[in-house]
Design brief:
Elements: H1 21-38, H2 45-52, H3 56-60, H4 66-76, H5 90-107, H6 110-120, H7 125-152, H8 162-179, H9 185-199
Helix pairs in contact: 1-2, 1-4, 1-6, 4-7, 5-7, 5-9, 6-7, 7-8, 8-9
């Protein structure tokens, strides 16, 4: 007999009497800690309750099961990200946004959560999908919007594949993290400037026709 993975719900916490926001935050922080420490399979509401310093019933009054609890914890990670900058320069905006994202991932549990969910992907792919939809996808859309403003201002060539440009920039950050390479503002600026050499209206590089 085959087992099916539990469905991860994305509904909001159950309504009821006003709750203590400090207690809510403690529960969600504990959930993220347990998720990154032991993984989703070994995670339990009891373990989360012990770390948060509350009883299990306190958690169950808010969430029906650990799937709902994990979904809420994923949503809480968006608090680490600020709004995309709008300085009037697409280059400067995307640099600030990449630094903002990197800082949030490094100072918060973002990279650790990502690793824990990748390990869990085969057994419970809905968790990773939730992380993508709640955390990664909105930031990708914000980055594309930043570059689109650059197109509208005449800074970026209109035929540019903006999504590919964003993937290249974000991919550089993820690759450096995986390889354990240091990440500095100068390195992020160099990455953005390298990509802008190919998409900027003022740095249009004509592709070589090949041959010699």
């Amino acid at each position: 007999m085959t087992q099916t993975n539990p469905q991860v719900t994305q509904q909001d916490p159950k309504p009821g009497r006003p709750r203590d926001p400090n207690l809510d935050r403690a529960i969600l922080r504990a959930t993220i800690q347990v998720l990154t420490d032991v993984g989703y399979a070994a995670m339990s509401v009891e373990r989360v309750a012990n770390i948060a310093g509350v009883g299990k019933t306190t958690i169950y009054r808010r969430y029906e099961n650990k799937e709902e609890l994990t979904a809420a914890a994923m949503r809480s990670l968006t608090d680490n990200f600020g709004p995309p900058p709008d300085t009037g320069s697409a280059r400067d905006d995307i640099i600030e946004m990449l630094i903002q994202n990197l800082t949030a991932l490094e100072r918060g549990p973002g990279f650790s959560v990502m690793g824990a969910l990748l390990v869990e992907e085969r057994r419970n792919p809905a968790l990773l999908e939730l992380f993508r939809n709640r955390i990664m996808q909105p930031r990708r859309e914000d980055a594309v919007a930043v570059l689109q403003r650059g197109v509208e201002r005449g800074e970026i060539r209109p035929e540019t594949d903006l999504e590919t440009a964003v993937y290249a920039m974000v991919g550089s950050i993820l690759a450096r993290h995986i390889l354990g390479a240091p990440q500095t503002r100068t390195q992020i600026e160099n990455t953005v400037d390298t990509i802008f050499q190919g998409i900027s209206t003022t740095n249009h590089i004509t592709p070589s026709s090949g041959g010699g």
